[in-house]
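Run: sequence + L-homoserine -> complex structure.
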Amino acid sequence: MGTEELIVEAPASIANLGPAFDVAALAVNPPSDVVKVKVSEGDGIVIRNYGEYASSLPSEGHGNSAHLVAAKAIEQAGLRRRIEVELLKRIKPASGLGSSGATSAAVAYALNRLLNLGLGDWDLVELASYGELASAGVRHMDNVAASLLGGLVLVNPIVRRVTRVSFPELSIVVVIEGSKPNTGFMRSILPKAYELSDVVANMANVAQLVASVLMNDLDLFSRVITNDRVAMPYRVKVYEHWGVVKSILEKHGALGVILSGAGPSIAGFFKEEPPINEIKGELAKAGLSPMVILTKPSNEGVREVNHY
Ligand code: HSE
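>> structure
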């Protein structure tokens, strides 16, 4: 065989969407990651990182999401091949926007094509989830599924199905202040067991969250998205900026403000595009110096592109 290559772009994602811990995620773009994946005869996996955040990524072994996915794909293919990945890292690592998930999704998609693995949606989600071991220590599937399929995804490892629904055209403001310890730590601070009343509350909130998206019922969406009893109440304590960011976004009419994934990103959902410069000014007055991203739901997931 000669060298074969694909260039693939994958959107960022907001995991959990409030109450749906490890179950739901929404693809958003910008930002996105782009990978160029080459397969040729020989052995070895080589990862080269480019872009603003390249220096903060390990380029090999168990700490690198692209490497973990490539190693798993080669194992599944049962072939001897050399894999080279050039990663243009545009999603800030460890920011809570599914940075590792987007890279993992892009590499899994490309290798499914290049190695003729023939994987359907669920198996592709499973392959991509190996990349999450690098940052989270577990193969949570929400971020990778959103980056692969776009829209709002619901993952269910029990029945091995991923469900995707289109998401309304809202504006989303993401405020990234500081950094998170790491996803593994942010998972370790969650309780190991919950009261039945909390489980019932979250089931009701997740069910109505999905219904609100399907019915485009923004009033219902607004009521349920902030109601979580499983993860957010424990995690926001780690982020001192949570309260002030939440109240500034709410003051500007946010339908809901949530921690994105394990944080530190905080996401506010708006019916109309909010005055982003005013919001930035108020955040600065409050003594914060965050990166602020105005983004949108992406109903498109991974896609092949011609260049990067
Ligand atoms: N569902 C995962 C978590 C997402 O909340 O730990 C991490 O990006």
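>> summary
The two ends are 25 Å apart (CA to CA). Residues 109 and 251 are 41 Å apart (CA to CA).
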